[in-house]
Amino acid sequence: MLNLIMVKYFLFLNSICFALLSFGVYGEQSPYDTDPYRFTKLGTKNGLSHNQVNSFLKDKTGFLWIGTASGLNRFDGYHVKVYKHDPADTTTINSNAIKQLFLDPADNLWVKTLDGLNVYDARLEQFSENLTPFLDPYKLIDHELEEIIADDSGQFWFLHKNGGLSRYDPEHHKTDNFIIPSDSDGGVSHIVRDMNGHKWVIYTNGVLEKRDGASMQILFRDYSINALFSEEYFSYKLLADRDGDIWIYLPDERRGVFYFNAKENKIHHIHKESKGHRLNSDLVSAVIEDEDGNIWIGTDHGGINLLDKSNFGVRHIMQDNENPNSLSQNSIYALHKDQEGIIWVGTYKNGLNYFHKNNIRFTHYRHHKSRKESLPFNDINRFVEDKYGNLWIGTNGGGLIFMDRGNQKFTQFTQQNSHGLSSDVVVSLLYDSHDRLWVGTYFGGLIRYDGKQFSPITRDGPGLLDENIWELFEDSKGNIWIGTLSNGIYYLQGGSTQFSDPPIKDGHSMLNASYVAAIEEDREGRIWVGGTSGVDIINPQSGSVMHFSHEIHKNKSLVHDNVLSILHDHKGNMWIGTQGGLSLYDSRNQCFKNFTDRDGLPHSTVLTLLENEGQIWMSTPNGLASLKYNNDDEYEILRYNELDGLQDNAFNENAAYKTKKGEMIFGGPNGFNIFDPKLLVTNKNSPAVVFTDFQLFNKSLSVGKEINGRAILESSLQNTEKITLKHFENVFSVSFAALNFFHPEKNMYKYKLEGFDTEWITLDGNNRQVTYTNLDPGSYALQVLAANNDGVWSAVPAQLNITVLAPFWLTPTAYFVYFVMIIGMLYMSRRWLLIKAKNRFLIEQERRESRQLHELDLMKIRFLTNISHEFRTPLSLIMAPIEKILKEPNNDRQKFQFQMIHRNARRLLHLVNQLLDFRKIEVEGLELHLSKGNIIKFLKEAVYSFNELSQNKAISLSFQSDTESLIAFFDIDKLEKILFNLLSNAFKFTPEGGEITVAVFCRNIPEDDEKSELTIWVKDTGIGIPKDRQAQIFERFYTHEVPDSMVNQGSGIGLSITKEFVRLHGGNIQLESTPGEGSTFKISIPLKTVEKGLANNTSELTGIVRETTDKPATDTGSNDVNLQKLTVLLIEDNDDFRLYLKTGLEEFFEVLEAKNGKEGWKIALAGMPALIVSDLMMPIMNGIALCKKIKNDPRTAHIPVILLTAFTGEDQKLEGLHIGANDYVTKPFNFDLLLSRINNLIKQNQLLQQKYEKKVSIQTSQAEITSMDDKLIVKVMKIVEENFSDPDFSVEFLSREMGMSRVHLYNKLSTLTGKTPIEFIRCMRLQRSLQYLQKSQLSVSEVAYKVGFNNAKTFTKYFKAAYNMIPSAYAAAEKKTPMS
Predict the structure, then answer these.
(1) What CATH number should be reported for the domain whose range is 8-38+134-365?
(2) 3-class DSSP state for residue 396?
(3) What is the DSSP string of 185-234?
(4) Which ranges carry the Histidine kinase domain (predicted)?
(5) What residue ranges do the domains of the chain occupy?
(6) Of 1312, 1311, 1123, which is closest to residue 1235 (Cα–Cα)?
(7) Distances (CA, A) of 186 to 3, 145, 150
(8) In the predicted model, what is the mean pLDDT of the chain?
(9) CB within 10 Å: which end of the chain, N or C, has fewer?
């Protein structure tokens, strides 16, 4: 008992002494200073599950875990994730009431709730109440734990519920269990490690022990608290501060806090009733130490008691309703300091608060309604410092404020309480070198304060004409420059009271002649004036002015013309703040380096500029910024906003000042900030980046949740290195966070998806989610970098590997299958190609064989055609002599033999013609050649041409028609062949005594009055044709079987040709036949009729020209043409036929011979025949080529040409006539016909000669001649006319001019004109002389010379021979004849 009394007495004395030591320090705290402890808050509005915060813990990853009265929360700086109890899920936490949080050596989170302990498995994101798997590795005494404590050395202490203590060394994986001393009943309550490595243990009975850190031997034991509380048992907590002293508190008791001085081994009790250093509440919930060594004591209803160990003064941090950054509530339930020095404060009802001295960096002075000592007025315009370091503050409506910085007191001067202050809106201040204060006002003019009174400088004073004094500046020489709102700048020379204009010489002017916003002096003494028109630089010594303004197309011009501030730094650089950015003047190149918000400024409008040791500070409408500039490529910009403690993001223009101590002052509409830039600490901690959420198709994935048949996340996202997605799961989002709690809103991010993005993409702190869609199958790596609030970037990016699987058809297995399929397809394709090639070869072989057969057929056809042509020449040699013999008188027997020869020759000719027609149908095709004529008469004559055959075979032949006459258009040749073939077949297969009838019917076509349908029946009583053979009768080469008594002499092509000719006419042919009774062929042909009716008996078949009907000229001797041995050239390759023709023509002509065209051309040039007869088909040069050559050569173009051919087609005739042939005779032919055509052509040529002879006159040169002969005559006449007067003009000269030999010229002129060349020249000269004799006054001799005669005698001789009178008589006669 006595010992207990002594302990209490000892504690009382210590408290008295401790109070005496600390009393004076406590009273020195200024009530006027602003509160430096400003907090950031987090509550249910921000996602917290409950506002009662009981505990904190920051894990190794960097997440902050918050235990509340209703749920566990995880905070990443942006988002709160809540974990709550779910009765239906055993993997959730067992209770929502969280009491305490701690970590085990494996970094598992232990959660102590009202219902006991839970362990959170971060990998599976599950809670477990089964502690055994987590505690077995540590080999503890038992598993009934009260708390796990990690000390500064990395060792873990397990406090057992039975009071036991275990230590686990993670480095050596060793566990030590300690026995509790016998006098420490109740067990260990808490343990800490001090700065020296000693362990301090307190027991529930209040006994405090100091133990060796290694051996755990007891070094010291204190019973003071045990004695004070009469050995009661409590739950104690310990804190070892940086000095090695121990702080002891009882969280659930009103016992204050105990301070154990380790050096003195003395305990001091600090509580509500303490002398001098008292707490404001004895209910202490938590005690921590901040980075500055201050002890934070959290109390219930007492806020935070901040104890300064240097003087043990206590500062009470309490809730202030007027300060949004004050403590949110005074009931503190938890305190926690993390590794970064942030102090987390848990309150009873208002969530959590957290503080760091660098979190809210700027001291803020503002007006408090409840504090009279606070700033009187918030809206600040200007600052200036006097010689004592006090501040004069100009406000925007609150007058002038004086701040005594030593006493932290404010004095306000307004119009109401200060005589001479003419306006409460102060816009400029200047404290000059004579310790006078100049005050510029808005509509109050300029005021000067001498320390005693305000003296207005009135408007009607000397020189000052503006009431709005916007800028005041004193230069290095003591001159005062005054900038106004609308009247430009004024100048007050040092010591003078007279205002004047700036010292600017004539010829120089300022751009800023009205509004002046900024004035500054450079190191050369020049004054820089800024306004709305750029910058004017005034040189007071020379009076010159230089201008700088913004130029649109020059990047290095002033960034903007609206200048707001100008700064001259210690290096001599000039900085210009404008409404469009910041400009740095380069004096060497006289240009500017510009900075805007794109370069990192918080805003492009720079309001005011200050400098501190090379750092340029600027205020903007969006916070403050500091620029550390080294060169154009090396500069750093830091930005600060309202979150850092600024009065507001917006500042006022010119409301900035730098004090003599180097402090920076910036003012705005909500007071002002004052700070020392050297004391601002940059957050150097590079933030760790964690992935916080993975969404698939906008749905978050949880661990183990099955999606499309499997779990995508098998562990938490923070513990997942790789995510595998199926090919259709290619729309996903990933969220991330930088675990930086210093204004996380200011964090910056850069991300890149390797394999997709080529460059880093930047995001701000408000956008922390990236989404990718429709990624191709492949492997990707999402990398994310983060920068903290001060722009410090993490060195290593966080990485999440993402694999998008290919669909089955794009997998390696599928590719293998494709490969096998391709190989198989190639094999099959190869096989198919081989088969196809083989089939193609067979087909080609068949085609080749077919082509060879076809070519063989064509060869056969060509052979038959050629031999048919060859037949025509012998036939001509047979028929022509026979016809000639038949005209001569013979005896009847010889005549009968000649007629039989002639008849069979004609039959042979018909067969040859059929072969030729078949060849045309097969190769060339046929066309109709219509002629107009009486078709009924034509058919009748064709039928009766078979009368002789009818009589010989004793077969009756009759012709019937319902129309006597029908004038229509039809193809004579083809219709004749149709009828000939049908009648020939009828006679061939009709026996003697039979009948053949040809009937013709004509009917009108109702649809067309001009057309009629002609029907021809050829009916016989022959053997007939069976039904099964009738369809084949019109096929080529088909021959019908006939009785043995008949011989089928047909070729099988007649009816085929007949059907084709009928088809060409647009008609059709039908057969009706009965075997043994006969056959009837019915032909229907549409015709275009001209006239239909009865025919005249004497009418002829008009419009029809056939060679077979040409009548030869029998009386050749009676022709008018002079045929006295004219020369005819005969060209024929067949010797017999040429001999035959020569024999017949020699009676009338001189005949020249040639075997081919080439030989004939030479003879034609040499002999100039009167006419050429040539065969068409000849070797070396055929008749067509020869005719073309003759007609294209001027020397031979006048010679007529007759072509002989075995071709009967129209095409060959047209081709021959087209190239200039005069006539065309088809073999075989009647010789008299050929002779008649020769006579006609020679007669026509002689008439042409007479024509040219008549045209040889002076006027003939005016005729328009187009033929070759005409062109030749015109050219000869022109040459003669040009040489009339030349007596030496001769035939040799004329032949040279014509380009012809004399012989050729002679033959040509003789043929065309009937005159020799010399006669032709003389005739033209005489013709010209007639004109001279008629119209000129020349004598006969002069006319003779004029027309080329050498003397008049010769001229008279030839003139008389031509005109039967001499020239003089002709001239006299003409002159007597009157002119008509």
Answers:
(1) 2.130.10.10
(2) strand
(3) TT-EEEEEE-TTS-EEEEETTS-EEEE-TTT--EEEEE-HHHHHTTT---
(4) 866-1089
(5) 8-38+134-365, 550-680, 689-810, 926-1104, 1125-1245, 1255-1376
(6) 1123
(7) 22, 14, 22
(8) 84
(9) C
